Amino acid sequence: MKIIQHSMVRLGLFALALLFCLAGRSALAQQDQANYIGEKKCIECHKQENSHFSHTAHAKVFRLNPRNENESRVCETCHGPGSLHAKSTKDKNLIIGYTKEWGTPVEKQQEQCLTCHKGGNRMHWDGSAHANNKISCSDCHNPMAKFSAKGLLKKASITETCQTCHQQQRAEFMKRSHMPLPEGKMSCEDCHNPHGTTTRPLLKADSVNDICYSCHAEKRGPFLWEHAPVRENCVNCHHPHGSNHDKLLQAARPYLCQQCHANTNHPSAFYNASQFPNAAGNPLAGGGVLNSRVMGRACQNCHAQIHGSNHPAGARFQR
Asked: Which of 156, 210, 250, 309 could be bridged to 205 by S-S, CB 3.0 to 4.6 A?
């Protein structure tokens, strides 16, 4: 009985997928039958859209210096031929739309944009995290209005556009220690290429370390004495976006160091009851002497060159 039920469910899903496929093909077939009617016909109905569009780079290129016949069609360059749409404006299958409500498949939207915007930074768009998650170009860009200084973004800046979806990273940038992104000294695009790269987090280099070294060149080396976790990955110790600990650290010092260096030649239990006075100001049992190694930079009071050292006596990354 269960086998029959599973078979019926699979058959139903297959039939549903087939209907969507046939509907999509029917819509494309209708669009292929349409003819180009020219920009003036579009403006007769879309006057407000035209007033916003006229300020954009697309409008200036298409109207003043088109590279080919397709670009000279202006509106129909992106939306496709509009003769059938002009006759039946409520049928959304007759023209290519760029909003989720319109219903044009994301793949079709991307195909239209990549007709001109292919190669370069978009070389790795196919197979990227954004493409695989069905992110359309129009989810980040608004080619019909000039909301940003460059890039025709949907928000005023790259950062605001990215943070529309990436709320966790937005929260991390609000922490005490963070990259100078909220201050406007950098943007998400300084480290990531949203249009696709060969790395999983869309990094603009082959690894996290290569990205960090582009600004923090003094940490690059090569060093005579290298610190293994530093060489492996900067995020072993640092949060890339923001942290409530000093210098974007994953944990407070000396706890961060003790995650690996539990057994050392000097006492590794830097915090204990004998090192602090009680609420009344009187030392607890043990003398209440504060261990100097918990002050300031903790382990780095002595091991200052923690990213690596070229000094002949730097095996312990000391000064």
From this structure: 210
- Say what the pLDDT of residue 299 is: 84
Residues 6+ apart with CB under 8 A from 63: 74
Provide the 10 A C-beta neighbour count for residue 87.
10
pTM: 0.78
At 14, the amino acid letter reads F
Domain map of the chain by residue range? 34-163, 217-309
The residues of the chain scoring below 70 in pLDDT are 1-32, 264-297
Q: Angle CA(157)–CA(235)–CA(213) in degrees, nearest 5?
A: 70
What phi and psi values does residue 308 have, to the nearest 5 degrees? 145, 155
Q: Which two tokens stand for residue 245?
A: 């600990």
Compute the half-sphere exposure of residue 79: CA atoms within 13 Å on the CB side of its CA: 25
